[in-house]
């Protein structure tokens, strides 16, 4: 089973995602990074997710994305998150193991599951800066040792994706051979793909048409995400496509209706375009729809 995990940082994004998931009768993971939590404030995020849970019957998980340290993971666990990610990928193998183990111990004793990361994605992850030249694919043998020694519940791996709107300079290429080896060594560990936005060309085009400047943006094509799911990826992280959808819709209103200044004038189409984007992913790419 493949789950989409969508990044959230405000009410409209949360509503758009859960509205889409509900219409598709699909389980959904909402995730917040530490900078998103700083922005939205943890109590607000928590209450908004509670509101979504009251409104709909679908399973909705709240996940910490790229937890940078034990304290942030603890704060989220103590605030009712269903799962946390500890991202120790910037540390050495042994340091990553120590940190992940500490989070796993705390989380498991409170019924919370833990995603960890091994290998480095090119690009920027929160406070973690990894230059292209340092980009390091996940080593399948190390992955097995890492999961065995830490007891983490799922593992994010590096097979060539990166965060943001500029994932590939030339053709999109992912190391499915590495994914296959990791799955051979860890057949029962859910594998997570970060940096998995498609960077939907139509959204980039709308942004650029209405005053944006995002030339040459490129993401992971839908066919590749489909292939990743066939080869055992269980969770696919999406943030950039939602950002593009929101920006595209807002830019269009600003350009076409310069007299508009009621935020609902532009937040309503923004929420709608995020919802359509999430519906498309659930239905056509991830296949998690259970719509009758
Ligand atoms: O993996 C990174 C996510 O897109 C979150 O980004 O730290 O800017 O919220 P952020
Ligand atoms: P994108 O930048 O490709 O949307 O990736 C998001 C992500 O991996 C969040 O953890
Ligand atoms: Zn990520």
Uncertain stretches of 5 or more adjacent residues: 124-130
Largest sheet: 8 strands, parallel, barrel
CATH class: Alpha Beta
The total count of strands amounts to 10
* Annotated CATH architecture: Alpha-Beta Barrel
Order of helices and strands: EHEHHEHEHEEEHEHEHHEHH
Span from first to last CA? 18 Å
Helix content percent band: 40-55%
User: What's the overall geometry?
Assistant: globular
**Residues in β-strands, percent:** 15-25%
Query: What's the average pLDDT?
Result: 94
Q: What structural class results from the helix and strand content?
A: alpha/beta
Order of strands, widest sheet: 1-2-3-4-5-8-9-10
Give the CATH H-level superfamily. Aldolase class I
List each distinct ligand once. Answer: glyceraldehyde-3-phosphate, 1,3-dihydroxyacetonephosphate, zinc ion
Counting H and I runs of at least 4 residues, what is the number of helices? Answer: 11
Description:
This protein has 292 residues and is an alpha/beta fold. The chain is built from eleven helices and ten strands. The strands form two sheets. An eight-stranded parallel beta barrel has the order 1-2-3-4-5-8-9-10, surrounded by nine helices. A two-stranded antiparallel ribbon has the order 6-7. The protein has one domain: Aldolase class I (TIM Barrel). The longest helix is centred in the C-terminal third of the chain and has 24 residues. α1 runs parallel beside α3 and α5 runs parallel beside α6. The chain is 48% helix and 16% strand. It binds glyceraldehyde-3-phosphate, 1,3-dihydroxyacetonephosphate and zinc ion. Glyceraldehyde-3-phosphate binds next to α2 and β3.
């Amino acid at each position: 089973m493949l789950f989409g995990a969508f990044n959230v940082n405000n009410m409209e994004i949360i509503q758009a995602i859960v509205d889409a998931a509900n219409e598709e009768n699909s389980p959904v993971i909402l995730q917040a990074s530490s900078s998103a939590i700083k922005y939205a404030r943890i109590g607000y995020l928590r209450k908004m997710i509670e509101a979504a849970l009251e409104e709909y019957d679908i399973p909705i998980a709240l996940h910490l994305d790229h937890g940078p340290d034990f304290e942030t993971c603890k704060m989220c666990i103590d605030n009712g998150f269903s799962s946390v990610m500890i991202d120790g990928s910037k540390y050495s193998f042994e340091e990553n193991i120590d940190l992940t183990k500490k989070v796993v111990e705390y989380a498991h004793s409170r019924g919370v599951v833990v995603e960890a990361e091994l290998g480095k994605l090119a690009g920027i992850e929160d406070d973690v800066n990894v230059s292209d030249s340092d980009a390091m694919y996940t080593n399948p043998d190390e992955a097995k040792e890492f999961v065995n020694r830490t007891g983490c519940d799922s593992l994010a791996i590096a097979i060539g994706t990166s965060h943001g709107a500029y994932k590939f300079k030339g053709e999109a290429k992912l190391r499915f051979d590495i994914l296959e080896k990791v799955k051979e060594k860890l057949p029962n560990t859910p594998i997570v793909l970060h940096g998995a936005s498609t960077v939907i060309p139509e959204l980039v085009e709308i942004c650029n048409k209405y005053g944006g400047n995002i030339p040459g943006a490129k993401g992971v094509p839908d066919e590749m995400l489909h292939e990743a799911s066939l080869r055992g990826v269980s969770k696919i992280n999406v943030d950039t496509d939602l950002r593009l959808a929101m920006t595209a819709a807002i830019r269009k209103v600003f350009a076409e209706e310069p007299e508009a200044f009621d935020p609902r004038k532009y937040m309503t189409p923004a929420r709608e375009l995020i919802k359509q984007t999430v519906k498309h992913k659930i239905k056509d790419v991830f296949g998690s729809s259970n719509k009758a």
